[in-house]
């Protein structure tokens, strides 16, 4: 369906609706939604799906290779996951574990 938008020069609103449909499935198939979204440069669904993707080392190699269609998309995903991990560590380390004492 996404290929038809380019092929038949459908209006941008069609692409927007398809992006919303993809985003609705982000929690069910995050890696596939991320892959399709990055392939067709749909930033919002890709961003939403990336939040549901677990660490990439938990997926088998074939799944990642078949799902993520470009090296750039893979690199962006790994970078994003690294950034999120670092930021979460900062938040956790800045919190007092026992603010009221033991």
Kindly describe this structure.
By secondary structure, this protein is an all-alpha fold. The protein has one domain. 67% of the residues lie in helices and 0% in strands. The protein has six helices and no strands. The protein has helices spanning 2-7, 12-24, 30-39, 43-50, 61-67, 71-94. The longest helix has 24 residues, at 71-94. The radius of gyration is 17 Å and the shape is elongated.
State the major sheet.
Answer: none
Indicate how many domains the architecture comprises. Answer: 1
Query: What radius of gyration results from the CA coordinates?
Result: 17 Å
Number of helices: 6
What tags apply to this protein structure?
single chain; 102 residues; mainly alpha; 6 helices; elongated
Brief summary:
It contains six helices and no strands.
How would you summarize the topology of this molecule?
Elements (H helix, E strand, L loop, with lengths): L1 H6 L4 H13 L5 H10 L3 H8 L10 H7 L3 H24 L8
Helix pairs in contact: 2-4, 3-4
């Amino acid at each position: 369906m996404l290929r038809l938008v380019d092929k038949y020069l459908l209006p941008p609103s069609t692409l927007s609706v398809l992006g919303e449909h993809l985003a609705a499935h982000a929690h069910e198939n995050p890696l596939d939604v991320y892959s399709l979204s990055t392939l067709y440069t749909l930033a919002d669904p890709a961003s939403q799906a990336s939040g549901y993707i677990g660490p990439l080392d938990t997926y088998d190699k074939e799944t990642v290779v078949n799902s993520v269609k470009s090296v750039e998309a893979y690199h962006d995903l790994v970078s994003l996951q690294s950034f999120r991990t670092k930021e979460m560590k900062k938040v956790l380390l800045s919190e007092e574990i026992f603010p009221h004492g033991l």
